[in-house]
TrEMBL record:
It comes from the Bacteria. Keywords: Hydrolase. InterPro entries: HAD-like_sf, HAD-like_SPP, HAD-SF_hydro_IA, HAD_sf, PGP-like_dom2. GO terms for molecular function: hydrolase activity. It comes from Pseudonocardia yuanmonensis. The lineage of its organism: Bacteria, Bacillati, Actinomycetota, Actinomycetes, Pseudonocardiales. This is HAD family hydrolase.
Length: 218
């Protein structure tokens, strides 16, 4: 979702910086910003506390989490722009009859707010980071999504923008179509890299799956 379908990473960035400053810090370093991409609430908060140089006590963690979620929710409710080609690509694969799942590290509360604008009707199932034992980069979210669709993860193509998400999808066994947003994604045996989702066709997705499996078999 974040950074793949909608341009929400900048929203998360603003919310994280607000929490950081509340903790007495100033700004996230470029390295810390990259670390937060595709992360979940727990991992992102740990980075913010580290950057602020503040011990992460349970009480402070609860307050910071509440602030982060509510501030982000306000901005999500204001509407979020689509990533280039994402809306058309999503409609195209649905019209072609593909089973689709939204797999995100974002929690259910915020995901449901974002789905108002994205359109929940585009997905057969949605899996959020707080609904599995371990979020991305663990494979749990993708394994759950594939199971809910009645498919093996190996028969699926995951569309991802972040290194964290790509590691999760590849660990689950899915072929990956990587569409970079905030950071460059190098080629790899489990993925095909594409500059954007503009012009994506069902045949392109089939080609991604075939190319990845051929690379892995070589």
């Amino acid at each position: 979702m974040d950074g793949t379908l909608i341009d929400s990473e900048k929203v998360w960035d603003r919310s994280l910086v607000e929490v950081l400053r509340w903790l007495g810090g100033t700004d996230l370093s470029p390295e810390a910003r990259r670390e937060t991409l595709g992360g979940n609430l727990r991992s992102s908060l740990a980075i913010v506390f580290r950057e602020a140089g503040v011990v992460q006590t349970p009480e402070l963690s609860e307050q910071a989490a509440h602030m982060l979620v509510e501030r982000t929710a306000e901005m999500f409710e204001g509407g979020l722009p689509w990533r280039p080609g994402a809306y058309t690509a999503l409609r195209t694969v649905r019209e072609a009859g593909f089973a689709t799942a939204l797999v995100t590290n974002t929690g259910r509360y915020l995901t449901d707010k974002a789905l108002v604008g994205i359109g929940a009707e585009h997905f057969d199932v949605t899996v959020c980071g707080d609904e599995v034992p371990h979020g991305k980069p663990a494979p749990d979210p993708y394994l759950r999504a594939a199971a809910l669709l009645g498919l093996a993860a190996e028969d699926c193509v995951a569309v991802e923008d972040s290194p964290t998400g790509i590691r999760a999808a590849e660990a689950a066994g899915a072929a990956v179509l990587a569409v970079p947003c905030e950071v460059a994604i190098p080629p790899g045996p489990g993925r095909v890299v594409r500059p954007s989702l503009e012009g994506l066709t069902p045949a392109d997705l089939a080609a991604v799956h075939r190319e990845v499996r051929e690379q892995q078999a070589a």
